[in-house]
Amino acid sequence: MGFPAHAIACTAWKGRVTSNCTSTYFSFLRPGYNPLHEFKLCMSETQPPILVLASRSPRRQELMREAGFNFVVDPADVDEEDYSPEVLPADLAIRLARIKSHTVATRRQDDFILGADTVVAFGDRVLGKPKDAQHARDMLRLLSGTTHIVITGLSLTKRSTGYAEEKRVMSAVRMRALSDKDIADYVESGLWEGKAGGYGIQDKDPFVIRMAGCYTNIVGLPMKTTRVMLAAVGIVPGAMGS
Q1: pLDDT, tens digit (0-9, with 9 covering 90-100), for 51-76
Q2: What are phi and psi for residue 173, nearest 5 degrees?
Q3: pTM of the model
Q4: How far is CA 214 from CA 121, 172, 211, in A?
Q5: Helical residues (DSSP H) of the chain, grouped into ranges
Q6: From CA 232, how far away is CA 169, in angstroms rounded?
């Protein structure tokens, strides 16, 4: 006697066989057995969780795709400038990541929401995204010839179960001394827009001469830490949940 088609199908995802799927084969013998109901139940238990990236950042989306993750984009669109001047950069990165993930979780309660926020720390001073070209010039002049810290906060949450995990990753960056022309040319290019500290290490001339720590953290999403956080809840590259 062979397995019914529905029992075989429910074991197909990633080659997994669950106790429910195995029992489905035997349950077709009982009176009133509904194979469609059993199939739907089995598939609901084996489907990978849906991952939602609560970020509009094209760099974060690109890093996630390059890593092979399937995900949905649902930006939180929170006010990243709404914080006390006394808050430390490391605390702010976590706080904004948490706000982003929890904001999206209110409308997607059964999905895993990944929020992230990157700030540049110059001492205890927070450098977020420049508001305009002049702000970008001021940031680059401040960072010229110095070492600063890039901090990304990560927040992964699932509201329906109360799951919440947070991580913080830091990298050190040394920037070469910049001339007025260097700054003017870079600002004119528009590459500073939407980037913490007013620059991107992935740009053609990012002015960076030395770094320590995670490169993708400086881009905007520390992928090693992100992979570990997602694997802990069963989200791996190539999973079909999204």
Answers
A1: 999 999 999 999 999 999 999 999 99
A2: -130, 130
A3: 0.76
A4: 16, 9, 9
A5: 5-9, 19-27, 35-46, 58-66, 89-105, 133-143, 180-189, 215-219, 223-231
A6: 18
Please say if the pLDDT value at position 41 is more than 50.
no
Least Cα distance to 222 among 93, 105, 111, 113 occurs for 93
3 state SS of 163? strand
Tell me the mean pLDDT in the region 122-135: 92
Q: What number of CA atoms fall less than 13 Å from residue 61's CA on the CB side?
A: 11
Report, in angstroms and rounded to the nearest whole number, the Rg of the chain calculated over CA atoms: 23
For the annotated catalytic residues, the residue numbers are: 117
Q: Tell me how far apart the alpha carbons of residues 174 and 120 are, in angstroms, rounded to a whole number.
A: 12
Residue type, 11: T
Question: What percent of the chain has pLDDT above 70?
Answer: 78
Residue corresponding to tokens 């010839």: 145
State the virtual CA torsion across 74, 80, 84, 85 in degrees, nearest 10: 150
Coil, helix or strand at residue 171: strand
Q: For residue range 191-233, list pLDDT tens digits in order.
A: 999 888 999 898 877 689 999 999 999 999 999 999 999 999 9
